[in-house]
Amino acid sequence: MVYINENFKLLKRNYLFAEVANRVKKYKEAHPEARIIRLGIGDVTEPLTDSVIKELENAVKEMSKRETFQGYPPYEGYEFLRKAISDFDFKRRGIDISPNEIYISTGAKEDTANFQELFSIDCKVAIPDPVYPVYVDSNVMAGRSGVAKDKRYSKFVYLECKEENNFKPELPSEKVDIIYLCFPNNPTGQVLTKVELKKWVDYAIENNAIILYDAAYEAYVREEGIPKSIYEIEGAKKVAVEFRSLSKTAGFTGTRCAYTIIPQELVVYDKEKNKYPLGELWLRRQSTKFNGVAYIIQKGAAAVFTEKGQQEVNKLISYYLENAKIIYDTIRNLGLKVYGGVNSPYIWFKVPEKFDSWSFFDYLLNECQIVSTPGEGFGQNGEGFIRLSAFGNREDILEATERLKKLNI
Ligand code: MLT
Predict the structure, then answer these.
(1) Do 331 and 388 contact (CB within 8 A), yes or no?
(2) What separation in Å is there between the alpha carbon of 407 and the centre of ligand 1?
(3) What is the end-to-end Cα distance of the chain in Å, rounded?
(4) The pairing of beta strand 267-269 with beta strand 370-371
């Protein structure tokens, strides 16, 4: 008899976005004529930019000739891409991150899920609530969660994010080892100022903790004083890993390319207090379980880190941010309390009193044929909230807001 990994029994039956997709599929089967507008999962709709397409085409041609053909990519990514990222994302902004601190991968989802493998099973993990469910589920699968009770896990330290604190977590009152943070935040769209983020870096330095900082939405930051990278904060290189992605920045959700920053000074210890550089451990893990990102994709990705590429990407981001504003204003005019939507592609709002998250999700689907994401799926504190994504083409966003305006709530 083969026994199950018991940790899987602690998980919700379906991954949040799989559950949403199942419900939408059922609705579509019952209403084949419905024109559904998808503002649920944050999946981009606008095509890859001209520079990226051109480089992808060039790379395809290179693969057709023996002299330029490429086989297995390097586990950590090609030097040309790591150097371009180091220059454009960091050095130009006065941040000293070198190419050998950058690790290319297929997604921030996979990297944030897998990174916990490098840490002891006994590490105390602090997780915001609400939160991108991947951080929770991956630690549950690994066996770090303890038992499930009242929609929470006994061994996690929850960082409460509620209206009362503007959805900005406070420092944990007990000592933790690993801290997940995501800013601009998924799902609430909230951001931290440099001063607010510095408190976390200081906490991690004082408590020998490591921050796993998900910056997948950094490109949406447009306001002064809001950091795009945790390394803008003094001392962060000693305590933080940063996850970045081209998915929401340059339309790579389907093309798949992301990168994780592991500063050289970041180390973990064994029980005898021997030091292990985290970057070396990650490479050890990646080279065993992952064979790199395709040459063609990395060439396309490198086009993002050029003057022209940056201009194109900025245009894309402006487009989605304009969508976010249209949705934000519509929800606010309905008289609902709304967050996010500025420096972020996500709009987070409170549902009318007679609903909870999932019943309002059903209501939006039935009344407006709009797919949303129920806040409860992101954690207990998300109950009573809905997330809408601003990723969509403008016609769909305008159509969605017209439908929303007609609601009688
Ligand atoms: C989301 O909708 O939260 C994201 O698209 C999910 C992801 O990036 O995996």
Answers:
(1) yes
(2) 27
(3) 54
(4) unpaired
Q: Is the CB of 21 under 6 A from ligand 1?
A: no
Mean pLDDT of 351-356: 97
**Amino acid making up residue 296:** I
CA of 215 to the centre of ligand 1 (A): 13
pLDDT digits (tens, 9 = 90+) for 54-97: 999 999 999 999 999 999 999 999 999 999 999 999 999 999 99
Q: State how beta strands 37-38 and 370-371 pair.
A: parallel
- Tell me the CA–centroid distance for residue 134 and ligand 1, in Å: 9
Look up tokens 């402006």; give the residue.
318
C-beta of 114 in contact with ligand 1 (< 6 A): no
Ligand 1 close to Cβ of residue 42 (< 6 A): yes
pTM of the model: 0.97
CA 116, CA 158: separation in Å to the nearest integer?
17
* pLDDT at residue 135 tops 90: yes
Q: Is 186 in the pocket of ligand 1 (CB under 6 A)?
A: yes
The DSSP-derived string for 197-242 is: HHHHHHHHHHHT-EEEEE-TTGGG--STT--SSGGGSTTGGGTEEE
CA-wise closest residue to 38 among 408, 407, 387, 406: 387
Residue 48 alpha carbon to ligand 1 centre in Å: 18
Q: Give, for ligand 1, the residue of 15, 16, 17 to mutate: max count of ligand atoms closer than 8 Å to Cβ.
A: 17
Strand partners, 384: none
pLDDT at residue 239 greater than cutoff 90: yes
Residue 408 clears pLDDT 90, i.e. is over it: no
Query: CA 204 to CA 357: how far, in whole Å?
Result: 34
